[in-house]
Amino acid sequence: MKAPPHPGPVRADRAPIAVHDALICVAAPALAVSGRCGQLKGEGFDGLYRDGRRLLARCVLTVAGAEPLAVQAAMLGADRVRFMAVVRTAADRGPDPSVTVERVRSVDGTERITLTNTGPVRLRLPVEITLGTDLAALAAVAAGRAGAEVSCTVSGAGLRWSDGEHAVQTTARPAPDVVLAAAGRLGWRVDLPAGASRTVELRTGPVAAAGAVPGPSRPARPPRLWPDAALDADDSRAGALLGAALDDLHGLLLRDPRHPADIHAAAGAPWRLGLAPSDALWAARMLLPFGTRLAAGTLRTLARMQDPGTGRIPGAPRDMGPHLPPLSSGTEATLLFVSVLAEAWRWGLPARETEPLLPAAERCLDWLRGAVAASEAGGLVADPAPGGPLRTEVQAHAHRAALHGADLLDAFGRPGAEEWRDRAAALRAAFRERFWIDEPGGGRPAAACTADGRALDAVSSSLAHLLDTGLSGGGRAADGLLDDARTAQLGRLLTTAGLDSGWGLRTLSAGSPGYSPFGHRSGAVRVHETAVAVAGLAASGLEEAAASLMKGVLDAAAAFGLRLPEIYAGEQRTGSGPPCPHPMACRPAALAAAGSVHLLTALAGVRPDAPGGSVALRPLSCAPVGAVRLSGIRIAEAPFAVRVGRRGTAMVEEAAPGLRLGACGGRDDRRT
């Protein structure tokens, strides 16, 4: 039996429809996209979607012959939105409307419309809802190629649409007094005594088209993976952001259709509501403090997709801005696979789940060995290989994968650990020789080098990945790609006005040739790279820099209603207004939501070694959000909670019996 397909991603660069101001509900693979008025008018991207198809494009409410006046729209969660409106009637004698209209729209296709009479007299109001759909594919809607609306027929207490291949039905409760199929209209005569409320409920969902063979039922939505995760801080925005980010991530969770126990995160809504391997791995990695189930499901799903001959994880080409050719996100995914497995094991992924994934990790290392040989660049990795540029972030991913791979091979008694430590050392030496640009003020790392050794004279947020290379999976001290002095210099660079917009790190420094504040890789802010920078700066002891970037992202999150888009404009913060949204950015997005989690968990700096039965803490002593209590953490499948005071002193409040408090990265932590 054929499994139901994943909804495919949409090429956002081909999409003429901006959604930055839309209210997007998501419970993958379902979407509800609405404007702030609450009316679905069959225009643009608005509508209810499931499995990559629009189920409903038009849902226009009129009361007493007029559309209600919208006064408020607010998300109630990742999967629901609430609209408030008012209606003036002939009985109103002053400026105050006597009828309120509340609409609660859920991504499951349910909409509840409640009319309340707050006036002194009884009202009898005609209420009509006009419905329609084009049953268009999401990709066609995004590209502005949706077709004409499909004709409908009466079906029980509602309407039904079919194009011969797909069919959808809307049912109303209570049953309408009038059903006009030709106009797609349902009508009621609503009796509203003073102070009374009446509710109409619509339920829209797919049904089998005439003559179609029913497909298999889709498995139930994944459970909430982080029900106990919570952050209490003096700055209340921090805890609210964690809750909103985890809610969005839950909405983006998908099951592997053929292996429904395995869960991964879709890349984002609305354009990318499908599996993007590198994004899914980053999300799984950043969510490890709250459990290993997402990481395990993501790794198993990608292991089944891995090329058995080359060991490569698939990935689409990714634009890299004006100075570099596109790279393949498969390179990042292949290297990240090893790190996510090693770190999940350190957080407590059981050996019975880790060991079956080791062959896939070894194939990833085989791919890395071949990529190093093909580049002929002294242990460095070209992308695209061979002959492509040597990118800084690729070297960071490769170095980390080599160290993590060595840890895994050692721990499970498999050969090759010393080879990978030697390869990491060779990569480190080659990087330090070729990637540092000496200049007045201390110099800086290059964003990339050509195969013949020329450095790219550009400064990018991708340099933050250099801070994510200096610890092996076991928490032991290990040399990173930069020594301490150059790490400190990088910390200063990341907080200069050229890179730090005040809302987060730019993907290209302002003033660089080709800089654009809306450029995905040429100046916009990517939340997850700023989060990588914050965590790396904190781990390196550069706490003031970490705190400054963290506060900028918190301020941006507040401006975006605690739902950060995957990117937003890198215009310099001046105090004159909030950050500008990018018109094509996914919102919610897995990388932005997971990046928010990663940034906030850096406050406590929990570093586990579950196989060794210990945990280390390195909290931010500067306390950028005041006192903090972080709970719902899982180490070796047991609960863990920590409190950090205003002076940066950490106290473990909950832990598994026998879990030892150890040193952090080989250093004593006197604040713990």
Q: How are the SSEs placed, and which strands pair?
A:
Blueprint: E1 23-27, E2 30-34, E3 40-41, E4 47-50, E5 53-56, E6 58-63, E7 69-77, E8 80-87, E9 99-106, E10 110-117, E11 123-132, H1 138-142, E12 152-154, E13 158-162, E14 167-173, E15 178-180, E16 185-192, E17 197-207, E18 230-233, H2 236-252, E19 253-256, E20 259-265, H3 277-286, H4 293-305, E21 317-318, E22 327-328, H5 329-347, H6 351-354, H7 358-375, E23 390-391, H8 392-411, H9 417-434, E24 436-437, E25 444-445, E26 448-449, H10 484-494, E27 525-526, H11 527-539, H12 543-559, E28 567-568, H13 590-601, E29 606-609, E30 614-617, E31 628-635, E32 638-644, E33 650-654, E34 660-661
Parallel strand pairs: 30-34
Antiparallel strand pairs: 1-2, 2-4, 3-6, 4-5, 6-11, 7-8, 8-9, 9-10, 10-17, 11-16, 12-13, 13-14, 14-17, 15-16, 18-31, 19-20, 21-22, 23-26, 24-25, 27-28, 29-30, 31-32, 32-33
Helix pairs in contact: 2-13, 3-4, 3-5, 3-13, 4-5, 5-7, 5-8, 7-8, 8-9, 11-12, 11-13
Structure in words:
With 672 residues, this protein is α+β, with helices and mostly antiparallel strands. Among the domains are: 22-207, Distorted Sandwich (Beta-galactosidase, Chain A, domain 5); 306-457, Glycosyltransferase (Alpha/alpha barrel), CATH 1.50.10. 26% of the residues lie in helices and 25% in strands. It contains 13 helices and 34 strands. Strands 7-8-9-10-17-14-13-12 form an 8-stranded antiparallel sheet. Strands 3-6-11-16-15 form a 5-stranded antiparallel sheet, with no helix packed on it. Strands 1-2-4-5 form a 4-stranded antiparallel sheet. A hairpin with a 6-residue loop joins strand 24 and strand 25 (444-445). The longest helix is centred in the middle third of the chain and has 20 residues, at 392-411. The protein is elongated. Mean pLDDT is 91; it is low at 1-7, 11-15, 472-477 and 665-672.
